[in-house]
Amino acid sequence: MKILIIEDEQRLARLLKQGLEEQGFVVDLAYDGSDGQFQAEQYPYDAILLDLMLPEVDGLAILKGLREKGNDVPVLIITARGDVEDRIKGLNFGADDYLAKPFNLEELIARLRALIRRSRGKSSPLVTVGDLVIDSNARTVARAGTVILLSAREYDLLHYLALTAGKVVSRTELIEHIFTSDYEWDSNVIEVHISHLRTKIDKGYSSALIHTVRGAGYILKAAP
Amino acid sequence: MTRPAPAIAARLLIWQVSGVTAILLALGLFFYGELNQIVVSSVDRSLHAKAQIFTGLLHEEHGKVELELSDIIAGEYVIPRSGHYYRVMMGSALLAASPSLVDENFSFIPIDASADSGSSAEKYANAIGPAGEPVRVLHYHYRAFGTTFEITLAEKLTEGLTIVTTFRNFLLIILPLGILILSLATWWIIRTSLTPLAQFSTTIETITHRNLDERLNTDRMARELTCVASSFNDMLDRLHQVFESQKRLVADASHELKTPLSVITTQCDVTLQKERSPREYADAIHAIRLETVSITRLVNDLLSLARLDAGMVAATGFLPVPVLDLATHAVRLTASLAAEMEVRVTVIIDKTLQVRGVRSSLEEALLNVVENGIRYNHKGGEVCICASPRENGQLAIEVNDTGIGIRSEDRENVFERFYRAAAARNRDGSGLGLSIVKAIIEGHGGRVVLDSEPGQGSRFTLILPAVTQDSRVNEV
Questions:
Q1: So what's the ipTM on this one?
Q2: Candidates A5, A8, A15, A79, partner chain B, best to mutate (most B CBs within 10 A)
Q3: Element holding B286 (H helix, E strand)
């Protein structure tokens, strides 16, 4: 899950990045409004953490710009201004949630996960594809009741495929969602991770869940 | 009326009612007396005229004095107890008496002796007549034919008194009624003119810190009240302004406090997220320590500002302070920062120069300016503190730096609370330093001048009242 943090207080931004990364998120940082606006419009994030009081471009202006361009990325506002009016204003501008500083990191992460789930049309933290169950809170995977241990990258990849289960996902899309934007990638990295995943998920089971769609990408789906 | 009457209304009413009552009562009594007088005097005149006629009717015939009654007046006197009486005594003998008297020796009993009036020859009195009616009696002494006649004439007062009584009864009804109607009218007028005052007070009651922008509507108020209402509105304007700026300050302060607090909270949350090495724990504690330093600094600055706002820099506590001492203090306290930033601080100040003020405040002001010069400087930069006397008994302390400078669009705002130019963001500092400097210097009757060239550096000039040679002699 890739998150963009737009926060001008650099110490807080870096701490958030560390905290989120340790929970398995992939995090991009923007320290001012214009940089944040550029990144938010440029890359497909799973969610954006947005501070309101930003130099150059105000947080609400970024939010408004995104929504006007039809970008539905979940936005969670974090700000020191916690008045009811501010919250209402933020939500009316198209924010999905609102947290006042100082906040509890666990709560922030829980809300972030909920936002991402809902934006994918799922309410439960358990994502099920056939007999595969992914617990997105505990970051654990089990198939037919057997727990499967995955590396962080493999989990991210599988989780993303599971969230978009039934749809074909391109390699670029996968990369954009599981690596930071400044990551210098080569397309092989996805193939390597997919092959590891196949070994762990599909090998030894009667039906395969991960399928390659030639020239398009990958799809996770249970056998009909 | 459930609410107690306003004091003004009650007082007005009491004064008005008692005044009107007194005037009406006096007038009533006066006219009552006058009317009485008119009735009595008209009877008296008629009695007098009749007495004159009676004297004319006395005549001597054959050595015998007789009263020859004319027909014109005889009629009234022949009917018994008709209210018209006469008796003429010649010496002590009865000469004639009207048949109306019935008893010719009837004595008119005076009602009040004091009411007797007239000369000794002509005496008037109120008395009770034969029919028990009130009468006016004239005792008239007349000398003729070598003897003395005493003519007693009486006329009933009944008709006249009836008019007087009617008038009195009229007064007894019309006076209380008039007073009552007038009181009600007064009450109504008072209530009507005081109603805007009640609305006024209702509006005032609803005004709290949440709706300070509400104003009294002066459109339909009496002129006296418009005046009060508009001064009240002006006061609300001023309060609203102060309140808004205080609210902004509090909002800014809470924002500034929440930032380091959220860094601390997040630092703790991240650190506790999983097991870490002792090195990582130490780093986290160190980072938290740094944040508490910035919170402490912010709180101290806020307290300084609050003290300055409360006007705690008072001219009464002003003493001469050597400028060199202020500069030395600033240099000493910024030594470690200067070393860290690799900025050289030089002081060029004549040790005889002195300013007048509160030492600790002035130290804080200069320290803030010098610290700014160091903090927003380049590595290897310089800060120079110098002082020189100015005209008008003033003295200028200049702090020149070779720092990043301040853009012209920021120059207006750097003295505002929590304003930080874009270039100063994410550098340490509370955002209050320069507003504290401004408040302190202005509290000393001075001013702060800023010249700056972006990229070249800034010059802050603190202009303060100096201690001149003459006044220093006076101090000693």
A1: 0.82
A2: A15
A3: helix B278-309
Residue B108, amino acid:
F
How long, in residues, is chain A? 224
> Chain A within 8 Å of B296 (Cβ-Cβ)?
no
Could you give phi then psi for residue B317, rounded to 5 degrees? -90, 10
Q: Please choose, from the candidates A63, A52, A73, the residue with its C-alpha nearest in 3D space to the C-alpha of residue A94.
A: A63
Chain A nearest-CA distance from B201, in A, is 30
Instruction: Please indicate, yes or no, whether residues B329 and B383 belong to a single structural domain of this protein.
Output: yes
The one-digit pLDDT tens for each residue of chain B (476 residues) are 455 555 777 888 888 888 888 998 899 899 989 998 898 889 889 889 888 888 888 888 777 777 777 665 667 788 888 888 888 888 888 888 888 888 878 888 777 655 556 667 788 888 888 888 888 888 888 888 888 888 888 888 888 888 888 988 998 898 889 888 988 888 888 888 777 777 778 888 888 877 878 887 777 777 777 888 888 888 888 888 888 878 878 888 888 888 889 999 999 999 998 899 999 999 999 999 988 988 898 888 888 888 887 776 666 778 899 999 999 999 999 999 899 989 999 999 988 899 988 888 899 999 999 998 998 888 889 999 999 988 888 899 999 999 888 888 888 888 888 777 666 655 566 778 888 899 889 888 899 999 988 888 899 999 998 887 655 444 43
B352, part of any domain: yes
Among the partner-chain residues B259, B261, B270, the one whose CB lies closest to the CB of A15 is B270
Q: Chain B residues with CB inside 8 Å of A80's CB? A: 254-255, 258-259, 262
> Do the strands B344-348 and B382-390 form a parallel or antiparallel pair, or are they unpaired?
parallel
How would DSSP label each residue in A17-66? HHHHHHTT-EEEEE-SHHHHHHHHHHS--SEEEE-SS-SSS-HHHHHHHH
Q: Which two tokens stand for residue B58?
A: 């006395």
Residues A6 and A90 in one domain: yes
Same domain, A169 and A64: no
Q: Count up the domains in chain A and report the number.
A: 2
Q: For residue B293, what are the domain limits? A: 223-306
Domain with A196 in it: what CATH number? 1.10.10.10
**Which CATH number do you get for residue B152?**
3.30.450
Count of pairs with CB atoms under 8 A, one residue in A, one in B: 61
pLDDT digits (tens, 9 = 90+) for A100-158: 888 999 999 999 999 998 998 888 888 888 889 999 888 899 998 889 999 888 999 99
Are residues B122 and B109 in contact, defined by beta-carbon separation less than 8 angstroms?
Answer: no
**How far is Cα A154 from Cα B476, in angstroms, rounded to an integer?**
85
Q: Are B464 and B356 in contact (CB under 8 A)?
A: yes
A102 and B425 in contact by Cβ < 8 A?
no
pLDDT tens digits, B409-444: 888 888 888 777 666 655 566 778 888 899 889 888
Say whether residue B285 is in contact with chain A using an 8 A CB cutoff: no
- Cα angle B428, B429, B432; round to 5: 165
Last residue of a domain, one of A87, A119, A151: A119
Q: Do A22 and B269 touch (CB under 8 A)?
A: no
On whether both B407 and B458 belong to a single domain, the answer is: yes
Which residues of chain B does A15 touch, with a Cβ-Cβ cutoff of 8 Å? 263, 266-267, 270
Q: Please name the residue of chain B whose CA is at the shortest distance from the CA of residue A17.
A: B270
Domain count, chain B: 3
Q: Are residues A27 and A107 in the same domain?
A: yes
